[in-house]
Structures
1.
Amino acid sequence: MTTPGLAPSYTTARQRFLAAADHAGARVATHDHPLAGREGEQLGIDVAEIGDPAAGDVLWIVSGTHGVEGFTGSALQTHWLTTATAPPGVRVVLVHAFNPYGFAWVRRVNEDNVDLNRNFVDWSEPAPINERYGGIAHLLVPERWDDETVAFTTTRLFEYAGEIGLDAMQEVVSSGQYAHPSGVFYGGSGKVWSHRWLEEHASGLAGQAARLGIVDLHTGLGPWGHGELISHEAGDDPGYQRGTAWWGEVRSMQDGESVSANLSGDWLGRIAAFVPDVEITAAALEFGTVDTVSVLQALRADAWLHAHGDPDGDGAAAVRAQVRAAFADDDPAWFEAVRTRFDEVVEQALLALTTATK
Ligand SMILES: [Zn+2]
């Protein structure tokens, strides 16, 4: 059967997801976001559930943690609803658009310019300090975004990367920062809306789960069409070891194996605190799109647009197109590769849950 591929907008993606959920007989709950989208549309997190409400084995599949990355995640969730179902004894929970505002505005960040996966730090402690970010903050997001400024700042950033090395550069730029609210990879100054939503609803989403699998869908890192499983845990953690038993290769951020920097404040690293008595096996599934420099240039342009430009002005559509192209590829061959890998990962998770020692 043919799949429609990636939707052109958040609203269309949401309509397709809800239609597929309805057709599959899923139980659906909608949680409204307090703000409207770019065209005044209502925003929200939609949760579709399939399978026994009292199941002891539960799988969450989550899209749109990083807004714009939801174009792919949403299409994969819709694909799952139209082609698969929950095996006996397992409940599958699809969380659609965890960061709906970013999805609708074609941004990776949320309504507060916050990267949701840098916001799940322990806010009872002082926020982590990323001192070196401050030294290049003015280069990453300059006040102007004309050709001359882009060329100059990009050259300076390359020079800095040459001095400290590419891995260190990735860490400085993308591991998270809490001191520059209009910068990139900003973690915020407290719990944002999606964070509070998860904290409130996590135990309900887990239900009667004794075992919980989580696949959090992302795009923008790694080789084109390749899907890498990334764990927030270190190699000797039981959750990581279960992950490798389920899926084979899982890369640990903490051990520096992954395409991702070892970052602070990702939600998978915090979820155990919200559902404390559940055995959790979780990974981000990260699909590669374009090269890292193109991704960073898109994020810089987006941050500039919202800090110093006019998000409703003439140049905004071009920036949004640049961001979308960095995180989603409308080439059917790309989505076919992504979908094949997604099917494999979800099937492996469901198999592991149904065969777990009870
Ligand atoms: Zn992401």
2.
Amino acid sequence: MSTAAAIRRSFTDPELAEIAAVRRDLHAHPELAFEETRTAALVAERLQALGLEPRTGVGKTGVLATVGGGRPGPTVLLRADMDALPIQEENDVPYRSSVPGRMHACGHDCHTAVLLGVARHLAREAGTLPGAVRLCFQPAEESGGGAEAMIRDGALEAPRPDAAFGLHVWQTLDLGKVGVTPGPFMAAVDDFTVTVTGVGAHAAMPHLGVDPVVCIAHMIAALQTIASRRASPLLEVVVSVTQVRAGTAFNIIPGTAWMNGTTRVFDPELWKRLPELFQTIVRGVAEAFGCRAEVDYRRFNRPTVNDPAMCRIAHAAAAEVVGESNVVTDVRTMGGEDFSAFLHHVPGCFIAVGSRNAEKGLVWEHHHPRFDVDEACLGIGAEILVRTAKRFLGGGA
Ligand SMILES: [Zn+2]
Ligand SMILES: [Zn+2]
């Protein structure tokens, strides 16, 4: 018998079925960033039914609640995000999205359902918990800003949590695998918009104008040298121009051209230098072509950096649930995550819970119209979060 099968589980079968049912309910009713009113109401209602006193409207549509605290001890924050994406679902499942053009295509329905399951378990043991667990149901992860909004509204105050943990279902990991990566785990995300202004002209007489299209084309090519020539080859960095717009007709050189996109990086030092590197290239190319460039370069998410000591706690909890050989420590992605905002203030760990199952055809990536998870990952995630929180509080698992 494997270690995983031998351990005592925290959840009964009806409790696991309830987590899946909540997930399906949320999946069928997706709401976009800062519009999670139905979801937040469902969360608050269920927390109240557990005897907790949720605070709603935190960071606009977020919900906070505290379990335990009857015995003195530290406070640990557990976070789930609640928002969906503007995508039309293409899955033909009984719980498919009932809202056209909206879909839980990242799995945040899973995270919310899991944290409600965890709340139910912890509420049962509230009197004996050596410390408190702050349950944080966060809006607007995808659009950015949800975590910061909750922090501005007091999510990290009175008292300040000593640690923060969260999880994400993970489609590049098979069901039964769990990723706990110490150090940089997800990338910093910046986004940029550039407007290049030249002088419009007849397409047949380019010398009478200043062509912003040729200029922006050189900018796009030159920006790739940030990764290939300016950053150390040993560092990860991505520069992606994802939208380019210019012009109205085949025979008119337009007066302006526009682009936007994103940069991703792990290394904090390179992250600091990126805005200047970016602007130097854009302005230099603009000048060389006789154009003017307006640059709007913004920070979107910090890098998600897991604290090694908190990782050891999450790793031990995960190993109890799926077995040591199924805990991987090198999962990393250039994707970003605004859980990083919590980790900027308190040590913690963001856990990747394998959700892919090729045998069931559940292989589509996050943000794909056919994204779906093997729901067995819900129980694994809930079990790991409960054990991580209890280990941190010192109450064992
Ligand atoms: Zn996402
Ligand atoms: Zn996500």
